[in-house]
UniProtKB/TrEMBL annotation:
It comes from the Bacteria. This is Uncharacterized protein.
């Protein structure tokens, strides 16, 4: 996934990304596995 490719997106909305961060981590882990 392009999770690390978009650091600005995570910094732009920390409040909204904090919840998506968990989802992104799961998706990345599943895709990277």
């Amino acid at each position: 996934m392009s999770y690390r490719s978009r650091p600005a997106f995570a910094v732009a909305r920390p409040g909204l990304t904090r919840r998506r961060h968990v989802d992104m981590m799961r998706v990345c882990s599943a895709a990277c596995s």
